[in-house]
Amino acid sequence: MDATDDPRARPRHESRPVGTPIVVVDDVRFAYQRRGEAPVIALDGVSLAVRAGERLAIIGHNGSGKSTLARLLNGLLLPTSGQVLVAGLDTRDAAARRRIRQTVGMVFQNPDNQLVAATVEEDVAFGPENLGLDAPEIRRRVDAALALLDLTDLAARPPHQLSGGQKQRVAIAGILAIEPGVLVLDEATALLDPFGRAEIRDAVRRVHAEGTAVVAATHHMEEAVEAERVLVMSEGRIVLDGSPREVFAEADRLRELRLDLPPMARLAERLSARRPGFAPVLLNVAEAADEVTKESEVRSQESGGIAGGASLGGASPAPTDLVGAGLAPPSPASPLARAQGEGGRGGEGSPIIEVRDLWYTYQVGTPFEAGALRGANFELHAGEVAAVVGHSGSGKSTLIQHLNGLIRPQRGLVRVNGLDLADRSLDLAAIRRQVGLVFQFPEQQLFEPTVGDDVAFGPRRIGCDRQEVRRRVREALDTVGLGFEAYKDRYTFGLSGGETRRVAIAGVLALEPRVLVLDEPTAGLDPRGRDDLLATLLDLRAQRGTAVAIVSHDMEQVAAIAERVWVMSHGELVLSGTPREVFGQADTIKQLGLGLPQVTELMHALRSRGFAAPTDVVTLEEAEEAVWTLWHS
């Protein structure tokens, strides 16, 4: 037997120079076949090469084919036609599949679905053990993977006791221990808090620096800018392929494809429209700070003033002749911002939900006892939009599951419309019709075979007649952007991740609740789907007076729609206020393992350069006007 056929031999990729193809996808088509239905084409003539040592990002709208392509790269799916070669081996060759999966390792969105052992160390060793390696080699690989991912101190810990970011690092370490040539990440940071996301991004940088090619399918545009190359997919095809700067220069095309620009690229787009000569594409905060500073110096020289120390916060008068000054009028607010402004502010009168001194402990009296809530206080008023943020394990999900009685208070008070949820005689079914809850993993809420039946489940249970059920299902599906006729007969198991999430939300909306509570509602949605959903929530507030509470790790999203932000840490609500008030406390937010909107980070970066920048800027529109004021101070 040739040594290269031995699964215990070193992977072939180690001898491949950086830049040579390690995975080749040649004219691949892939169709999902559903019983009694026409095939659904997921990939339609895709060709690409992944080169050794390359860092590649794949972006695209929900259903564009990203995840399907990712699963084809290591033979989890096989092409309907065309060919996928990994280190020269055809993925359709069953005898080669073990070697293929040793060469191309894959990490999925939910780390809990990938961890199989009792300790971190054992989990990382699982792959090398299954390759039949001897004990010294397994030890070497496990130690190297743990060290690379900063997990050595956690080697003896049970994976279930780790944070989301730590679990995902363990999953990546387990793949790295088989020493693959390519690491494929399918939305691997979608469910993580900002600190966990930063952990994974740092880990990926280290893995890539070690020579491993990285392919990441993602909806986070700020992650895509860190790649060397970006592929944009739509309707099963690659429609753009280039460097991040080249791809994000195609702003109009990306928006046609239901995508968006990274925050700093959006700011650059707006500022370059008002100030000719300003860089039209910026990819991160550092670039934006450099460009704003440079432009401020240019303006200072033109006017004979001094740029350094100029105030961004002052109310300087605008030039009378904007065109003559080389500026266009202010850009209009985004549809999301307009929807927020038109909706009005809730919060008047008595709270519809009231939480006082709430404590909760899991597995009381066992060795695994863990406190989740420690004296939490929270309230939500009719028509209010509130966001609950915090690091993984801070108690966010435990808190919101108290809001409709899924968890009963152990100590403290939870009231809904004045009714005490600790009262055992209370009709919880009635409470849950008023307070609808959408879970973090929406697939856990879908159990009927078709979309229409799943959304209809709630209305049928509360006794709605056939006509009323149909009305509610139609309205709920239309509200979340899934046409009634197109989706009512679709099988739930055949939906994409984004479609699954929207169906779960529709099932709750069909009950027409007064309060909608959502745990990470936009995870897995493409940028357009995210903005459409958030605008829908604001419309519900404006038209029906629906109160909305969102658990989110996306600080841009929180800044865009929330009127009030509750910050949790270790089971306590430690900060509350408007987004401006909360994100204005940057040092505290970062100490809590959270992030800031990038426009807020930009203001802090400018302030560190000597400008009197306002640090309470939280939206793109505010950042644009702040910079505009800087140039005319």
Could you characterize what this model shows?
This protein has 3 domains: 3-256, 3-Layer(aba) Sandwich (Rossmann fold); 263-335 and 599-631, no CATH class; 344-596, Rossmann fold (3-Layer(aba) Sandwich), CATH 3.40.50.300. The strands form 4 sheets. It has a 6-stranded mixed sheet with strand order 6-7-8-3-9-10, sandwiched between helices. A 6-stranded mixed sheet has the order 16-17-18-13-19-20, with helices on both faces. Strand 11 (353-362) and strand 12 form a beta hairpin. Helix 3 packs parallel to helix 5, helix 11 crosses helix 23 and helix 16 packs across helix 18. It is of the alpha/beta class and 633 residues long. The longest helix has 19 residues, at 285-303. The termini are far apart. It is globular and about 70 Å long.
Search tags:
alpha/beta, Rossmann fold, disordered N terminus, 38% helix, 20 strands
Topology:
Layout: E1 21-32, E2 40-51, E3 55-60, H1 66-72, E4 81-86, E5 89-90, H2 97-103, E6 104-107, H3 120-130, H4 135-148, H5 164-176, E7 182-186, H6 194-209, E8 213-217, H7 221-224, E9 229-234, E10 237-242, H8 244-248, H9 251-256, H10 263-274, H11 285-303, H12 335-343, E11 353-362, E12 370-380, E13 385-390, H13 396-402, E14 411-416, E15 419-420, H14 428-434, E16 435-438, H15 451-461, H16 466-479, H17 484-487, H18 497-509, E17 515-519, H19 527-544, E18 547-551, H20 555-561, E19 564-569, E20 572-577, H21 579-583, H22 586-591, H23 598-608, H24 620-631
Parallel strand pairs: 3-8, 3-9, 6-7, 7-8, 13-18, 13-19, 16-17, 17-18
Antiparallel strand pairs: 1-2, 1-4, 4-5, 9-10, 11-12, 11-14, 14-15, 19-20
Helix pairs in contact: 3-4, 3-5, 4-5, 5-6, 10-24, 11-23, 12-19, 15-16, 15-18, 16-18
